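By convention, each integer encodes one residue's backbone shape. The lines below illustrate.
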Amino acid sequence: MSLKKLIPAAAILFTLGVSAQTMKLDHWTPAQLLERAQHLRQQAAQGDGSASETLEKYPHHYTMLAFRSHSGGGELHENYADLFYILDGNATVVTGGPLVDRHNSGPGEVRGSSVSSGSRQEVKGGDVVHIPAGMTHQMIVPEGSTVTYFVVKVQEKE
């Protein structure tokens, strides 16, 4: 093989090798996530009734774990879709209505005190919810209840 052909081939193999070495599989069982969420439960009790943590970041998405013992405010993520996997508990997800007391909370992030007149969907352990980028949403937790959920935030727009 000539040197002209060998150099590009070596570059490709090197790139594939580096990529294979830096790639990793992330795997969590529901039981592992619920165990990990115990400290979020404690943080929520000391704060406003909600706590979350980022688990891993990737080029166009990231994963989180969240716990709520109280309802959250309204949210809108301009560039990110939310995928929720409800691990435990129950809540109502309100989507699509206007944000009350709307204000920007950061680049591409809008918050409000609530979502008014949106569609309501009851969710419980085992349910999966997809909220596209640009859709208002709010998690309502019934009095005396809690909800623990795994979140995948997927970049849909730049």
Q: What stands out?
A: Helices lie at 3-22, 30-36, 38-46.
